[in-house]
Amino acid sequence: MEKEPIPDRELHRLLQVALVFETIIENRVQHYHENHASEPETQVLKETQEECREHRERLIDLLETLGFCRESHVELAATVSSRYSHCDPTEVEALRDQLASEIAAYIFYSRVLQRLSSTEYGGDADLGEVIDVLEPIKEEEKQGVMEILAIFSTSQSVPASLD
Ligand SMILES: [Fe+2]
Questions:
Q1: Would you state the pLDDT for residue 160?
Q2: Which of 27, 43, 61, 153 could form a Cys-Cys staple with 84, CB 3.0–4.6 A?
Q3: How far is the CA of 1 from the centre of ligand 1 (A)?
Q4: Ligand 1 centroid to 160 CA: how many Å?
Q5: Which helix (H) or strand (E) holds 119?
Q6: Taking the chain, what is the end-to-end CA distance rounded to the nearest angstrom?
Q7: pLDDT tens digits, residue range 102-145?
Q8: What's the 21 CA to ligand 1 centre distance in angstroms?
Q9: Which residues, in sequence order, are CB contacts of 7 under 8 Å at separation 6+?
Q10: Domains of the chain by range and CATH?
Q11: Cβ-count burial of 49 within 10 angstroms (0-12 exposed, 13-18 middle, 19+ buried)?
């Protein structure tokens, strides 16, 4: 059976959602890190912030490679960043929130990759190139989940939802 091509607009939208997602997580974690974190949470949150920034840059590079306007996506990320309003969590809430973000990101990238593996790209670019960018990002989200779970497993303050 032949695979249906994925329309440009769908691929564009999926990558834009990923970009907004990474930008929101980056902003949340930056806020936690600046206001509440302490060791060993500080290190994990710092690494997560850096990882989000890298993922955002990889997504913008990919969008540009696919022929979508780089500048408008840099602006999109800046707009999301400037309008994002923060909550005021405690340290454990920050980690729990980050765990939820990493799980949600992992599920999101998994679903996008499933969608891409069931289709062919209708544009000029190689769909394999998109998968090559998104697959490592998905694996890094999974790694983030495992790192935070490892902290919870040695912490006295395990959130009730993870007992
Ligand atoms: Fe990410």
A1: 47
A2: 27
A3: 34
A4: 25
A5: strand 119-121
A6: 46
A7: 999 999 999 999 999 888 877 767 888 999 999 999 999 999 99
A8: 8
A9: 122
A10: 7-154 (1.20.1260.10)
A11: buried
